[in-house]
Backbone:
């Protein structure tokens, strides 16, 4: 492995076996110690803080967030690793990481844990240029009304939006499993450490691909339950960044890259299916909404005219012909032209036309639609989770339909009628929806003579 070029490096590493009120775990502390040893060996100058045991209370966890927030890093060539091994859970759409004294009463549970949103906000305020988060959570069943069914969904979306590379030990609905005498580790961290120690280039997607294979081998060998890790990359230009050395990896793709382009109604399931396809085919996943939020946040620093992003899109992009495809041009400017990718969430027909006109890739266009009432429920859950003050106003079904009409007028209606788009209705069980999308996608890839 090449010598690291990071000028400043930080690591906060947490492993929790014992809890005052929650079920005991077996190997989280050992996993954290092994990861700390690995990262300190390959990045010798890294500043590492290893945290575990009964002293790691909620107050200590909150102090860690303050410490991260106050790093005040000004060096551009800097990296921050945050590793967590222990109980993680999702409640009311928001993801949480637990501490020693996390209470098992649900209303107290969420205030004696740390939300991943607060963690991401602290990391963004740190000034560190590259942030890498590793969540080996969902270790086992916590209590009947708090499950891991959706742990990671919101964190993955916010990570992409905020420009953070995040690794997840398992897909939503799965458990991150531990294995006893054979390896005496969690199977994800055990696999991750092996990959980091032996890979030639530790880019997010190369790590993800190798870890998925190793975890799958352990699951098969020891007859464990399904467990499929996944990774989100933000910002998009860091997809080829070696997170260990800090080097940008350059390579040549022998085949014309694939671009799965996902368009559709608001909260129809575009992000979820994008993540699923990215995991299935080891693709970079780029959200147009992340680019939109970046432009909106930068605009707000100079001009506070618009209370929400929809108004910003309406009056700064849609109303100006020269700006209608600006987000697509932002993406193409950042895209390296080599990786197979998933792009989800264009709103304007001009964005789609600009992306489709890019001759560098084979495009698989999908249009996802879902019943408005179902989409409204998803929107309300998401809005409640992120609790953004500027977008926390009550919204009715009528308001939601008006917003639908607004986006249809921007061009979604025209996109839905384009003959090269396959429309897939998301109106049943989620696994049926995923199966339909994967079957269509695989058939197109096969026709393009590109292997999975």
Residues:
């Amino acid at each position: 492995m090449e010598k690291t070029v990071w000028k400043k490096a930080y690591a906060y590493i947490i492993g929790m076996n014992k809890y005052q009120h929650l079920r005991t775990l077996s190997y989280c502390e050992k996993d954290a110690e092994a990861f700390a040893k690995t990262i300190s060996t390959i990045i010798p100058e890294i500043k590492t803080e290893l945290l575990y045991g009964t002293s790691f209370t909620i107050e200590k966890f909150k102090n860690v967030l303050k410490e991260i927030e106050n790093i005040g890093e000004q060096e551009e060539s800097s990296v921050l690793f945050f590793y967590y091994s222990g109980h993680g859970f999702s409640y009311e759409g928001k993801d949480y990481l637990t501490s020693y004294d996390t209470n098992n009463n649900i209303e107290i549970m969420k205030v004696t844990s740390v939300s991943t949103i607060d963690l991401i906000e602290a990391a963004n305020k740190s000034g560190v240029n590259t942030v890498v988060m590793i969540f080996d959570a969902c270790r086992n069943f916590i209590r009947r009304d708090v499950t891991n069914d959706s742990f990671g969904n919101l964190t993955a979306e916010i990570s992409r939006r905020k420009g953070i590379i995040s690794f997840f030990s398992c897909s939503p609905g799965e458990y991150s499993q531990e294995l006893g005498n054979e390896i005496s580790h969690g199977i994800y961290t055990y696999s991750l450490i092996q990959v980091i120690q032996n890979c030639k280039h530790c880019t997010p997607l190369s790590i993800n691909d190798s870890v998925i294979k190793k975890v799958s081998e352990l699951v098969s060998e020891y007859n464990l339950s399904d467990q499929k890790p996944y990774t989100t990359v933000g910002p998009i230009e860091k997809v080829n960044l070696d997170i260990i050395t800090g080097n940008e990896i350059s390579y040549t793709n022998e085949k014309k890259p694939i671009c799965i382009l996902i368009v559709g109604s608001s909260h129809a399931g575009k992000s979820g299916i994008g993540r699923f396809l990215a995991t299935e085919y080891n693709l970079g996943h780029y959200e147009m909404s992340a680019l939109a939020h970046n432009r909106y946040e930068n605009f707000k620093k100079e001009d506070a005219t618009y209370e929400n992003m929809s108004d910003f899109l309406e009056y700064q992009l849609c109303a100006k012909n020269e700006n209608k495809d600006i987000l697509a041009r932002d993406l193409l400017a950042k895209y390296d032209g080599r990786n197979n990718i998933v792009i989800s969430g264009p709103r304007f027909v001009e964005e789609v036309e600009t992306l489709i006109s890019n001759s560098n890739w084979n495009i698989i266009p999908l249009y996802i639609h879902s019943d408005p009432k179902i989409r409204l429920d998803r929107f309300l859950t998401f809005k409640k989770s992120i609790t953004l003050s500027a977008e926390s106003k009550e919204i009715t079904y009528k308001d939601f339909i008006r917003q639908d009409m607004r986006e249809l007028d921007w061009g979604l209606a025209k996109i839905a009628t384009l003959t090269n788009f396959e429309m897939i209705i998301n109106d049943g069980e989620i696994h049926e929806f995923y199966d339909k999308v994967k079957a269509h996608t695989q058939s197109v890839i096969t026709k393009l003579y590109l292997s999975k």
In short: The first helix runs from residue 28 to 42. The CA atoms of residues 42 and 244 lie 7 Å apart.
